[in-house]
Amino acid sequence: MESEKDKYHEQLIAAEKRIDRLQSKTVAALNPHSAGVKEEVKDESPRDTPSSPVHSQSLANGVHSDEANEWESVAKVREGKIEELINENASMRQELFDLKLSMKYPPEELVKDNMHYKVLLIHASKLEHIISENQSEISGLKDEVESLKATRLELEEGVKAATEKATQEVRSMLVKRDNENARLREQRDQQVSELNERKQKDSYKLTSVNEIKALAESRSERIKILESEVKRLRTRLAAEANDEDLMTFLFKSTSEEVSYISDLKSRLAAADRRANASGNTPLTVIEAQAQLAEAHRRLEEYQIIFGKTPLDVSTLTEQLRLKESEIEKLRLLEKQRDQAEASLYTELEKLSAAWEALDRQVKGKVFDLAAMEERISKSSLEKAKSDNKFYSAMRDKEAIETERKNLARTLEKQGKLLERLSEGEKTLIARTSDLEREVKAWRQAVDKQKECSETLEKEVQQWQKRATGERERCDKLIYAIREHEDDLRKRREELRKAEEAVAKSKKEADKYAAKMKAMSHNHSSSANSREHDLQSEVDKCMTILKCSTCKMHMRNTVITKCMHCKADHESHVNFLDSFAWFSSSVLP
Asked: Percent helix, strand and coil across the chain, each rounded to 5?
């Protein structure tokens, strides 16, 4: 296809070159005539010439007229050839465009004969058959689902009616029970109020007992504090006496039963056992073990200070700096602890004062115990009365309990009935859920088939839209190309008309030459008529000197190929450039 395009392009270029050559030959044939006319005008304008130059000029014009006739016949023949070539070029262009269009947008018959189209058509038919089968199956399933729904609705209505009936009976029994409960609640409230009154009376005794217990507990705590203080004082005395063993014993001891002498005896026995165990080994081993223990101890101290991993001097200095900061922090904490201890001692003093006040209060409460005992005796009498009321209430309660049991038996029967109904409902719900799952699975399959069919339809629509878009684009391109071809034909027609105008001007020049020859034989005419003739000749020459297309501007730049003025030539060149750009960018 590209080779044919290049071939047609070369043929078009060759045809345009032939047209340019023909135009250049025609202009070359016309140029001597225009030069002769200009020379005649220049020669005759300053002075009158004798008859011999006029005769020679007429002779020259006669010769030129014969040559012009010959060139005119040649131009006509070549013009016919040019028209034939132009028509052939246009038909070739149209044929080339039709071929390109058929290659880019193949016809429907060619597409239908394609193997890929046939495969897609078979696949689409299969999918349509599957979709139709699925739709028929879905319609059957829908009918089944509708029947199951109707059955379910009937069962639900029956269950609802039985349930409503049972609930109404239960509600009536519940109303009776609520009324009985309200009566019992009133009796209970009365008993509770009586009990609260008695509890309020007995609360004085209970508060006194609780106060005595609290007093005993506070005194036991005080005793423990004093014992711990005694222990601290003993350890302090042992530390001042530089007796480490006694201080260790005091820290270890938790009670007074363990004596210091028994502890010393046990420690002595342990030392003897260690000595007997070490007596069997040589002295060097004992010394080595002692040195090893000392080395381990010192190593542990260093490890406590510097850690287990070996460090360089900078790291050690950094750790020392950190340890110093920690020591400073601990010092500050020690100061804070001292201050806290001072405040703690002050609080202890306050607590001791409060404890003394509480002790005095307790003593006052003990003296009020006699009055409390009198209240207790009164409360015992009231308790006997309340017991009588309680027993009467218990009798009422037993009657209510029997009635409650009757109601419970009735409720149990109703509950069994409801359980049977609920089991039937559960089986129906399970069946409907299974059917709904099946329907859901079928719906999913249908949705997948619908999605597949929708995607195929979308693809078909996209291809159809693309085809319509390409057709519209092709129609627009065809319309634009035809417009440009029409414009090109119009411009060629204008060019032909311009060439015809040039030929007409040449004929007028021939007529003018013949007229000049006739005027050369008529020397007796007056000067006014000669000036008039000269003026008409000048006008005719001006028509030759002016542009043949616009007939307004002078031919300031003579182009030997087209005989147009510069402005028209530039507009023609711009048109040719725009057409070349259109053919290279728009056409594929």
From this structure: 90, 0, 10
488: phi then psi, degrees, rounded to nearest 5: -65, -40
**Domain membership of residue 497 as a residue range:** 2-106+482-585
Give the Cα separation of 202 and 194 in Å (integer). 12
pLDDT per residue as tens digits for the range 24-63: 544 444 444 443 433 333 333 333 333 333 333 333 444 4
- What is the structure's pLDDT at 99? 74
The total number of structural domains that make up the chain = 1
Query: Rounded distance, CA 578 to CA 584, Å?
Result: 10
Using CA atoms, how far apart are residues 393 and 386, in angstroms rounded to an integer? 10
DSSP 523: T
What gap in Å lies between CA 255 and CA 261, rounded to an integer?
A: 15
536 and 583 in contact (C-beta within 8 Å)? no
**Please, which residues have CB within 8 angstroms of residue 156's CB and are 6 or more apart in sequence?**
425, 428
Backbone conformation region of residue 564, classed left if phi is above 0, alpha if psi is from -120 to 50, else beta: beta
Query: Is 10 domain-assigned?
Result: yes
Question: Is residue 91 in a domain?
Answer: yes
The reply to whether 324 falls in a domain is no
Span 363-421, pLDDT tens digits: 766 666 767 777 777 877 887 887 788 887 888 888 888 888 888 888 888 778 878 87
Residue type, 317: T
Q: Within a domain: residue 352?
A: no
Taking only the tens place, the pLDDT of each residue in 135-181 is 888 888 888 888 888 887 888 788 788 888 888 888 888 888 888 88
CA angle 431, 435, 438 (to 5 degrees): 145
**Average pLDDT estimate for 509-521:** 71
Please give the full DSSP string across 98-137, using - where no structure is assigned: HHHHHHHS--HHHHHTSHHHHHHHHHHHHHHHHHHHHHHH
**Torsion-angle region of residue 19: left (phi > 0), alpha (psi -120 to 50) or beta?**
alpha
Distance separating alpha carbons of residues 366 and 211, to the nearest angstrom: 10
d(Cα 68, Cα 503) in Å, to the nearest integer? 9
Q: Which residues in 254-287 are b (16+ Cβ under 10 Å) and which e?
A: eeeeeeeeebeeeeeeeeeeeeeeeeeeeeeeee
